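Kindly inspect this today.
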Amino acid sequence: MADAASAQTMDRQGLERLLGEVAGGDQGAFERLYHATSAKLFGICLHLLRERDQAEDVLQEVYATIWRKAAQYDARIASPISWLAMIAHNKAIDRLRAERTARQSVPLDLIEDPGDGGAAAQALAEQAGTQRRLAMCLEQLEARRRTLIRVAFFEGATYEELAQRSGTPIGTVKSWIRRGLQQLRSCLER
């Protein structure tokens, strides 16, 4: 089992190796992968969902997906942590969208105040050491791309919503986001 220090220093090759072993059904590798990445992935879930219990539920779904789909990881397309983070992000967004649909059918007088879970998410992001680097890389993006990426990933907006809100064709929005994410990935991998 990996300790906290080794989990924080797991490099790309180590994560690729673990994903390969998980793809082969190695439960020990899966446990090591969990210890090496769960804090970061939980931070992503918590940041988007704002509620610890929901973030924990989604994190469980994330690792179930990783277990089933590890063989689909392709190092030529993304770094291991980017692939894992995208799974966490997508699962959290799926949960937000499901809640949005459910909330639309609940009378307003029955909806509770969600409170502010941002401080806990902020602390987790700082512990993982990624927030400052991500902010630095985001600031290097052209303002329009930066805004679209922030709204898409931190608010869960769809391409259609972004196109409508910005008054821009959906194809253009997709291109801007794709190019911005490529620049962001390049910056984060340096």
Q: What stands out?
A: Residues 1-9 have pLDDT under 50 and may be disordered. The chain has two domains: 1-129, 130-190.
